[in-house]
Structures are given as C-alpha cells and as structure tokens.
C-alpha cells in the first residue's frame, strides 16, 4: 500500500506543497527497510562489521578492487566461520557448512546468477537458479565426474594443473627473490580452468 501511494504521488504533477512530503515518505521507507535488514532479520545475529549490517558497499568495493579473497579471509579470522559480509550476503569458511549449502536446493542462488542468465549465459549447473534444470544438467555430466573417470584423468590433471601451478610459483619466486607475492585465489582458479579445459579436449578418453 505504501509503495502504491508513492507511485501514485509520483505520477501526479508535483508542486512545492507535495514535493517534500513525497521525498520524506520515500526516505522514511528506505530507512525503515535499512533498519529491518540491519537489526530485525535472522542475519542480524551473524557476526559482522557494523557497516555490513547496513550496506553492501564495502563488499562491492573489495570486489571492484579484486580484494574479495583477502577481505573475506580477514573477516573470517576476526569473526569466525560464518560472517555477514554484506547486508544480504553471508560468507562461510567451514567445509562442512559449505557442503551442506551446496548439497541441497533449499538455499537458492542469489540475484547475481539471475543477472548472468539475463546477459545471455547458457543455463548450466553454475548459472541456473532453477533446481530442476540443475538436476538435469548434473545427470548429463555426472559420469564425467565419477571416481572411475577421475582416476583415468588423474595424471593429466596433475600435469596440466598441479605441476603447472608449482612451476609458475617457482618461476615467480626466482624472479622476485627468496619469496614471492602469490594470489592463491586466482592461481587455483586458473589451475582448475586449465585442468578442466585439458580434460575436455582429450580424445579417446577412457571412461
């Protein structure tokens, strides 16, 4: 009802007598939503920096600067295994909690994935927010990730992934001296991408 009132007011010509009441109402609704998100939702009980109660701006800033991995690590070191990293974002560092979330469709994916699909991304196990499509895609690729297949491609993964990563780090260390500054997040991401691409290009793979 409040939203309908605001929209109706905005559609009418606004004079000086109605401008400030409308603006005041909009601000009041925004502040009320802010307070509700900050203090009166289940997320309010989760440890966090104070600003993370109110806004996603700190999180967005760290993402923009490419520092999300270090930012989340610092928060977990200070606040524990479950941290509120934004007013509607949670970060988990416990493998058991992460496995619980990923093993069920009870926890729906966030709006980011809907934006990815709206930009034309293919609906796969990573991009889709529809549980039924996810189940279908998992059945289609399930055999590729079975233990039998993983054993058959183990040497390939070691060569193109682990060994390549170690060689890259050794090269960085030799260039920078006795120690090197390494971005673990992107290093492991690149290793996983390279290994996956190598496996997908193999012909006559024994399955």
Automatic annotation (TrEMBL):
Span of the signal peptide: none
GO MF entries: heme binding; iron ion binding; monooxygenase activity; oxidoreductase activity, acting on paired donors, with incorporation or reduction of molecular oxygen
InterPro entries with a match to the protein in the record: Cyt_P450_sf (IPR036396), Cytochrome_P450_monoxygenase (IPR050121)
Cofactor(s), by name: heme
Single biological process term from Gene Ontology: secondary metabolite biosynthetic process
Transmembrane segments: 17-35
Keywords tagged on the record: Iron, Membrane, Metal-binding, Oxidoreductase, Transmembrane, Transmembrane helix
PANTHER family named among the record's database cross-references: CYTOCHROME P450, CYTOCHROME P450 MONOOXYGENASE APDB-RELATED
Designated name of the protein: Cytochrome P450
Record lineage: Eukaryota, Fungi, Fungi incertae sedis, Zoopagomycota, Kickxellomycotina
């Amino acid at each position: 009802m409040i939203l309908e009132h605001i929209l109706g007011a905005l559609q009418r010509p606004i004079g000086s007598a109605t401008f400030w009441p409308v603006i005041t109402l909009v601000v009041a609704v925004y502040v009320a939503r802010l307070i509700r998100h900050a203090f009166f939702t289940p997320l309010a009980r989760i440890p966090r920096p104070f600003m993370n109660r109110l806004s996603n701006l700190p999180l967005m800033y760290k993402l923009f600067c490419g520092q999300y991995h270090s930012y989340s690590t610092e928060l977990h070191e200070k606040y524990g295994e479950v941290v509120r990293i934004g007013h509607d974002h949670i970060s988990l560092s416990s493998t058991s909690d992460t496995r619980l979330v990923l093993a069920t469709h009870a926890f729906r994916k966030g709006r980011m994935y809907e934006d990815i699909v709206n930009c034309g991304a293919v609906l796969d196990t990573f991009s889709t927010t529809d549980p039924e499509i996810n189940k279908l895609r998992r059945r289609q690729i399930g055999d590729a990730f079975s233990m039998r297949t993983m054993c058959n491609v183990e040497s390939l993964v070691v060569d193109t992934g682990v060994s390549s990563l170690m060689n890259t780090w050794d090269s960085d260390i030799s260039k920078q001296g006795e120690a090197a500054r390494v971005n673990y997040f992107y290093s492991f991401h690149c290793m996983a991408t390279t290994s996956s691409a190598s496996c997908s290009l193999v012909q006559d793979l024994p399955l």
